[in-house]
Design a protein that fits this description.
Layout lengths: L1 H10 L1 H9 L1 E2 L1 E2 L5 E2 L3 E3 L5 E6 L8 E6 L7 E4 L12 E4 L5 E4 L5 E4 L9 E5 L5 E5 L11 E4 L7 E2 L5 E4 L4 E3 L1 E6 L2 E12 L5 E6 L2 E5 L20 E7 L3 E8 L6 E6 L4 E8 L4 E8 L14 E3 L7 E3 L3 E3 L2 H5 L7 E3 L12 E9 L6 E4 L4 H10 L3 E5 L10 E5 L5 E3 L4 E7 L1 H4 L7 H52 L10 H7 L8 E5 L2 E7 L5 E6 L8 H13 L8 E7 L2 E7 L7 H4 L10 H21 L14 E3 L5 E3 L4 H4 L7 E2 L12 H6 L1 E2 L1 H17 L15 H10 L17 H14 L10 H9 L12 E4 L12 H5 L5 E4 L3
Parallel strand pairs: 1-4, 26-34
Antiparallel strand pairs: 2-11, 3-8, 4-5, 5-6, 6-7, 8-9, 9-10, 11-12, 12-13, 14-23, 15-16, 15-22, 17-18, 18-19, 19-20, 21-22, 23-24, 24-25, 26-27, 28-29, 30-34, 30-35, 31-33, 32-33, 32-35, 36-37, 37-38, 38-40, 39-40, 41-42, 43-44, 45-46
Helix pairs in contact: 1-2, 10-13, 10-16, 13-15
The chain binds 2-acetamido-2-deoxy-beta-D-glucopyranose (NAG) (6 copies).
Length: 826
């Protein structure tokens, strides 16, 4: 080694010199770069050298910004061939390739290009591009003269001017590949590049699966990307010709540093901008932007609407292919036309205009840049596998034609979306919409009306939350401190988790990890580093609750320990985010069993009876045995989780309180709960008490016995709901007919009749007529005779509102203008 170094010094004193001066400006055969020295671009923007990321023992050659104190590596040469120690050297081989030599001059990495120049030199340009070119090349910035350039082999960063896309002549595909993690630059399986096809799109992939697509280029940017409208920071250029297809960007202000980075930890493609005075990178934009951006969340013809609940809705004129899966938020099967459609048959074949859409996946599509929209429509009509058409270029007032074949996939409403004409039976479209200027005007009117309504509602909300918040503040001292003193003795340490851990565990709240959407927010499955599985409830942000109160509540709820309550494992509070961590229940919730014809067979009568009794005990604990007296306020089948042995556990208790609902018996402006389970006095007057929970328990009991939902079921002959139906059967002396057909064989009639009687007692109209949970537990488990139920209280809605309102957010609770009328069963 010493000899070798001496030789170098002898043959070229500059090597020695370069180590002292620390930086060189080129690498040549006689002037290699040693570990410890760097190569700096002419104006000092970028620097190339050796680095070791984090605690990694490996040495890499990389390029970073010279003037940014937080080392930001934008390119790594030997990312998949790390050097193991410090005795490395970057040099030029005889054939002109850049080579990385390790101990004993063993080859670690090479540019491996065919280079036919006599005097190659390596140079780092001021745009961050490392190039090999002829030494006497005057026009040194001309791409044509580079025999090799690092811009052709991107890592995880797209710099200004760098092409992302294809050289169609050589087949070179330039795409981004994330680092495995922040201290391992080797290639991850999270990538982003252009997908070739008739109409190329930017895609992001996880392994071989498409994870995100931008939508095809439409002259401005893509129909699926917000925030690309003209802005002072950057400008995109998309080029498609016979030789190449690529996208690149330029920065408008040369003193601003802004790059695109792919991050495998976050599963995001982010544009980040350097903020000199705070010395941090700030995120300007992330893709995917939200869960609707995730590839094909809603299945074919399913439209993802981020503000809708649930987010997936079938396109107008379409219905869920499998309503059952769809209702359980399994949208993968997608939607089908709701009216039969026949190709080419008059009045059975037409188009419906759907405005503001991200264009569907272009894998099966066709384009013509010079066709008009009319021709486009005609072209589509001629081919029976054509399902939609649209303008290709919306930038210049609309031109060109895109048509799609087969199912339309990965649809969403997007701010930068455009008009899509979807083929369906004409009677379903009202009229043919292609030349429907009038429709546009009508649309504008509708938008205006909606906008005004929304702003009014917002105003009301604002006023309401103001009143509401002042109210909570007023109560603060009384309630909270008292409880804290009371519980302080035990000093239970509730683990607080940081956001990064949760993000990691839930795969950044990946849609794949979503277990469901309950009141107060979505629930995700998470896997901790040690393999433990947990459920994470991400609370909706807009609760009026303060941080301290929230933490107190969580600690109090974590103290509630009962075998029929879901265990609270911890929480995470960071910025706007509030999350609760629960034990994970592999069998999911009761509703997925009792309301499902196939699954319901798994729960025979003895199991159901056990479940009933156990829920009663859990509720009793909440109401009476714990010091806190928790009123659940949203007891329902989907809030009952089942463990491996089908033992029920009540979840979401205390949330009404944690999310800022007042928990005193009495009157509330905020209705938290689910129609169909709410006691009359609660739904109408907002009066809640442990007796309103008893009412919900009664509904749940009838549902468990009958396998029918109170809300949705109507018995044709009498237009009764489940409660009315049960009461009718009871009066007719045939209560056992209420039972789910799948239970008939396993059922114990006297237990069953007893349960129904208890249920009806719980459903009494006046709270004082209902038993408390202690009595319920006793009634269920003893043989004593029970009192006769009177007419139950049950509600029929005059106006139906869609979905089981989660009521986690104030808006969905305070502004529900549901008129409920109380009917007395005759
Ligand atoms: C490097 O060369 C020396 C002397 O020839 C030898 O002893 C040593 O094992 C070699 N190391 C490696 C890693 O090949
Ligand atoms: C170098 O390139 C040749 C031909 O392009 C290929 O066969 C070989 O595997 C490459 N070697 C490395 C180390 O990438
Ligand atoms: C990904 O993002 C996280 C969070 O911002 C950051 O800590 C990490 O360093 C990033 N990873 C890479 C490889 O840059
Ligand atoms: C460019 O950015 C710098 C720093 O942010 C700012 O001071 C300057 O005004 C900008 N120039 C233009 C032309 O916008
Ligand atoms: C595109 O449409 C124009 C006008 O209708 C037509 O002349 C041209 O041949 C079409 N091109 C292709 C490739 O179909
Ligand atoms: C309809 O389009 C499909 C897909 O491009 C094509 O395979 C088929 O030949 C076309 N049919 C007709 C009748 O043009």
């Amino acid at each position: 080694m010493a000899l070798f170094l001496a030789m170098l010094v002898f043959s070229n004193p500059l090597v020695f010199f370069s180590q002292i001066s620390y930086a060189t400006d080129t690498i040549t055969q006689s002037q290699p770069l040693l570990d410890g020295s760097t190569l700096v671009s002419k104006e000092g923007t970028f620097e190339l050298g050796f680095f070791t990321p984090g605690n990694s023992p490996n040495h890499y050659v990389g390029i970073w910004f010279k003037n940014i104190p937080m080392r930001t590596v934008v390119w790594v040469a030997n990312r998949d061939n790390p050097a193991k120690d410090k005795s490395n050297m970057l040099s030029l081989s005889k054939d002109g390739n850049l080579i990385l030599l390790g101990k004993n001059r063993s080859l670690i990495w090479s540019t491996n290009a065919t280079i036919a120049v006599s005097n190659p030199v390596v140079q780092l340009l001021d745009n961050g591009n490392l190039v090999i070119r002829e030494e006497k090349d005057d026009n040194m910035d001309n791409e044509e003269n580079f025999v090799w350039q690092s811009f052709d082999y991107p890592c995880d960063t797209q710099l200004q001017g760098m092409k992302l896309g294809w050289n169609l002549k050589t087949g070179l595909n330039r795409y981004l590949t994330a680092w495995k993690n922040w201290e391992d630059p080797s290639s991850g399986d999270f990538t982003s590049g252009l997908k070739l096809g008739t109409n190329p799109e930017l895609v992001i992939s996880k392994g071989s699966n498409e994870y995100y697509r931008s939508g095809p280029w439409n002259g401005i940017f893509s129909s699926g990307v917000f925030g690309f409208s003209p802005n002072p920071l950057f400008e995109y250029k998309y080029v498609q010709n016979e030789d190449e297809v690529y996208v690149r960007y330029t920065l408008k202000n040369s003193s601003v540093i802004s790059i695109i980075v792919l991050n495998q930890t976050l599963f995001l493609r982010q544009r980040i901008t350097w903020i000199p005075h705070t010395r941090t990178w700030s995120v300007y934009q992330s893709l995917p932007q939200d869960s609707c951006d995730v590839y094909n969340v809603c299945g074919a013809y399913g439209n993802c609407m981020i503000n809708a609940s649930p987010v997936c809705q079938c396109l107008e004129g379409f219905k869920p292919k499998s309503p059952q899966d769809w209702n359980q938020m399994d949208w993968t099967k997608g939607c089908v036309r709701s009216e039969p459609w026949s190709c080419g048959v008059k009045n059975k074949d037409g188009f419906r205009l759907i405005a503001g859409m991200k264009m569907p996946d272009t894998t099966h599509s066709w384009i013509n840049r010079s066709m008009t929209l009319e021709d486009c429509k005609a072209k589509c009509l001629k081919n029976c596998s054509c399902t939609a058409f649209a303008n290709m270029d919306t930038g210049g007032g609309g031109s060109g034609c895109s048509i799609w074949f087969g199912d339309l996939v990965d649809l969403r409403i997007s701010e930068s979306g455009q008009d899509l004409y979807v083929r369906m039976a004409i009677s379903g479209t009202g009229k043919d919409n292609v030349n429907a200027d009038a429709k546009h005007k009508h649309l504008k009117k509708v938008v205006l009306v909606v906008a005004i309504t929304v702003s009014l509602v917002l105003l009301m909300l604002l006023a309401f939350s103001y009143i509401y918040m002042t109210k909570t503040k007023y109560k603060e001292n009384g309630t909270w401190t008292e409880e804290k003193d009371d519980g302080g003795q035990e000093n239970l340490e509730l683990p607080f988790f940081d956001l990064a851990t949760i993000i990691n565990a839930t795969n950044n709240f990946s849609i794949d990890n979503k277990l469901g959407e309950g009141g107060f927010g979505p629930v995700y499955k998470g896997t901790m580093l040690d393999g433990h599985e947990i459920a994470v409830k991400r609370l909706s942000k807009s609760s009026g609750q303060g941080l301290k109160e929230f933490k107190n509540e969580v600690i109090l709820c974590a103290k509630l320990q009962h075998r029929n309550l879901v265990k609270v494992l911890g929480c995470c509070v960071e910025g706007e985010e509030k999350m609760l961590l629960y034990e994970y229940m592999p069998n999911r919730s009761l509703d997925s069993f009792i309301f499902d014809p196939a699954q319901s067979k798994l729960l025979d009568w003895p199991t159901r009876f056990n479940i009933l009794c156990a829920i009663a005990r859990g509720l009793l604990y909440l109401h009476q045995d714990s010091r806190l007296r928790i009123i659940h306020r949203d007891l329902k089948a989907s809030n009952i989780l089942l463990d491996n042995n089908m033992n029920p556990k009540i979840s979401d208790f205390g949330l009404a309180k944690m999310c800022g609902g007042d928990q005193v018996e009495g009157n509330t402006n905020r209705i938290v709960g689910t129609y169909g389970y709410m006691a009359p006095e609660y739904a109408i007057d907002g009066l809640f008490s442990i007796k309103s929970d008893v009412f919900s328990f009664g509904v749940l009991l009838l549902e468990i016995i009958s396998g029918k939902k109170n809300r949705t079921v109507t018995y044709e002959e009498h237009s009764d709901n489940l409660i009315g139906h049960a009461w009718r059967l009871w009066k007719e002396g045939i209560p056992e007919q209420l039972i789910d057909a799948s239970l008939v064989d396993s059922c114990n009639i006297s237990e069953l009749v007893r349960c129904i009687q208890v249920g009806l007692l719980c459903l009494q109209h006046h709270p004082e007529d209902r038993p408390n949970m202690t009595t319920v537990v006793v009634m269920l488990s003893s043989e004593n005779s029970l009192s006769q139920p009177k007419v139950p209280g049950f509600l029929i809605k005059n106006i139906s509102i869609e979905g089981e309102q989660p009521c986690g957010r104030q808006e969905s609770c305070s502004t529900n203008e549901v008129t409920v009328s109380l009917l007395n069963a005759r």
